[in-house]
Amino acid sequence: MKNKYVCSLIILAVMIIFGNAKNHPHVFLKVQKTERSNILYGDTIMIKESFNDEDVVPNEYIKDRLDPIRANFKRINSITKWTRIKQKDIEGVSAEGGEATFYYQKKRLEKIIARHYGEMGQLLIEYYLFNGKLSFVFEKEYRYNRPLFYDVKVMKENNDTEAFDLKKSEITETRYYFLNARLIHIIDSQDCGAPFSADYIAEEEKRIKEDFKKLLHLEK
């Protein structure tokens, strides 16, 4: 009974939130480039992108196949000086839009960082290339506890007990490993340990490749 009461309160809070969002059009401003950190710039959160990071250690049964992919990820995200960096707005992807950043080293595209913004969260997708082909994709999704505008004042106005707090976001990280243009392995931070089905892997491969193709088209 208690659980049903809590769920009812949550549903009511969400309805209040979305109704209040219309009165705060200033919240979702265009993101400006900042340091690589989880920060609040104006009214916009920027998720930390990978920099000089090691990948997680995979299971032994597939470690040998993933090691070259992981090494390439480490090499690229450790680069501090790029030959060229190009930014493009992403239109029609999410309600609040997004942006893509293309990184080049000696005329070769090495990685793409795509950011998608929403009222209740943000998605950061990192694409890493090896010899011009997709090698590794790292998705980081933040689902906020409340919208960005939902400060203490708004919380009290709605008789709520919780304001926006980035630390209370639900965070999901998913890693996708490609070999010879085929998705061979997935690591999900919320995975219960059961292996992914072949159908699911095929669907994810198709989705990622389609999104990647759109970004490459945007880059031209």
The averaged pLDDT comes out at 80
Strand order of the largest sheet: 3-4-5-6-7-8-9
**Helical/strand content category:** alpha+beta
Compressed to H and E, one letter per element, the order equals HEEHEEEEEHEEH
Q: Which range does the strand content fall in?
A: 25-35%
How many structural domains in the coordinates? 1
What does this structure look like?
It comes from Chryseobacterium rhizosphaerae. This is DUF1007 family protein. The N and C termini lie far apart (57 Å). This protein has one domain. The model is unreliable at 1-43 (pLDDT under 50). The protein has helices at 2-21, 60-77, 152-157, 198-219; strands at residues 39-41, 44-46, 84-90, 98-105, 108-118, 121-130, 133-143, 170-179, 182-188. The radius of gyration is 19 Å and the shape is globular. The chain has four helices and nine strands, in the order H-E-E-H-E-E-E-E-E-H-E-E-H. Helix content is 30%, strand content 32%. The strands form two sheets. Strands 3-4-5-6-7-8-9 form a seven-stranded antiparallel sheet, sandwiched between helices. With 220 residues, it is α+β, with helices and mostly antiparallel strands.
